[in-house]
Every structure is written in C-alpha cells, then in structure tokens.
Amino acid sequence: MLTADGFDKAFIGTATRCGQPTLAVYSVDKCIKILMKRDGMTSEEALEYFYFNVVGGWHGETTPLFVESVSFTEACESYWEEENERTESEKNLGCEEKLATSS
User: Fold this and answer.
1) 74 and 98 in contact (C-beta within 8 Å)?
2) Can you tell me the distance from the alpha carbon of 97 to that of 80, in angstroms, rounded to the nearest whole number?
3) CA R_g for the chain
4) How many Å apart are CA 9 and CA 15, to the nearest integer?
5) Mean pLDDT, contiguous 10-residue spans, the chain (103 residues)
6) Model pTM?
C-alpha cells in the first residue's frame, strides 16, 4: 500500500474494491491543516499546493485517495452544478430521489 509522505496524521483508513489493490485514504481537511501548521502556509497556499503537488501526483494504481467530507445532498448538488447533463449511471446513484425526500 502506497502512503502519502508527511500526512500520517491525516490518514483515515483504507479503501478496497473487487479485484483492485487496497488504497490508503486521507482526509483533505486534515492534510490542509498539516500544511498550514507544519509549513506555515496560509489556507489559500495550502490548498493550491495540496491540489497541485499532492492530489495532482499520479503514482500508479496504488496512488492514495483523498476524501472531502460532504453530505450526500451536497455531493449531488455539487456534481449537478458541474455537469449539464446526467448519464444513466448518475441517475442510478439515487441523487434525484434523495434530494426530493430531503427537501
């Protein structure tokens, strides 16, 4: 399992999927806080550095995952803002039904 150097305190677990290698999983919020505290970055500097240098680095199929904690509703709304059209697979996620019942 490949890990992200310097982000041990942001480690939140592992992710598995059928037939795929186990991946290390990190909290984005915790990674940003580490960069701010450890390296003296502002929030804006830490975000820019993190997304370009950490998330932007591909190290093969065992590259760690970085998770942002959001509610199901927030995730659906954010996704729909970015995409004008939904595919059949996105409709199958159940976002439409969940949003309708959560209002």
Assistant:
1) no
2) 14
3) 16
4) 17
5) 96 96 97 98 97 94 95 84 60 61 59
6) 0.75
